[in-house]
Structure formats: structure tokens, C-alpha cells
What does this fold into?
Amino acid sequence: MEEVTIDAAISSLPGALSSVTEILGRLGVPEKTVRELELAVDEAVTNIMLHGYTSLEGLIRLSCQRDGDMVRIRIEDEAPPFDPTEVPEPDLGGDADERPIGGLGIHFIRKMTDEIRYERTEGRNILILGKRIKTSDGR
It folds into this structure.
């Protein structure tokens, strides 16, 4: 398992995403899957930076591993507890101007991944995003 640790500052995000992209490439993850995971990680890490560590300094640890046709990215932080798996699906019906602001980020993460798991262990949020790797013939 390869990992990278970053400061929970928006300025750290581009470097973190670049590192994740490089790690996934070394793990032999196809480019389409890398792009989808990159978008999901971008959203998850941005949420931690903006909403988790609102007035705190902190670190975020990202680790990637591949197990057969599944690749998983583990995101750890020490911000206050937040379980994104308990966030209800947003109401996407009606006019966009009439919908409440927010809530689409987690919806987006769900659409980009095949697996989302959360646990709170020893004062840390642990979010695991999994994506099944499809072969070129779509299986």
C-alpha cells in the first residue's frame, strides 16, 4: 500500500491529487478509473479541508491499494466525526434554483465509486472509496 500525507489546506490539494494519480498509475489502474477516483478523492478531501478542519490545522493521509479488480483509496483525518455514508440522497427533482444548496458532493462521490465505507477509530475518520476495475471489454 502506497500513501501520502498532506496538510489540510486547499493549497495542498493539487499535489495530493497528482500523487494519487501517480500511485494509481503504478498500480496499473486504467486511466478512466484513475480519473473517476481522482474526482471522488478531490471532492472528499476538499470537504474535509473546508468542513472538517474549519478552524483547525490538520493532516490528511491518503493511501491506495489494488486487490485484483478492486482499487481502494483510504482517506484518514482527525477532524470531528463525520460519516458521509449516513448523508441521505439529495432530491434532484424540480428546478435547480429551488433545491437546497449543498449535498451534491457526496452524491457525486457515490456515483464515481462502487464502494464507500466509513469508520471512526482512535479519533480518526477513515473513509474508504473503492472502484472496480473494468476490463477493456466492459466486464
In short: The first strand starts at residue 2 and ends at 7. DSSP finds three helices and five strands in the chain. The longest helix spans residues 31-52. The chain has one domain: 2-132.
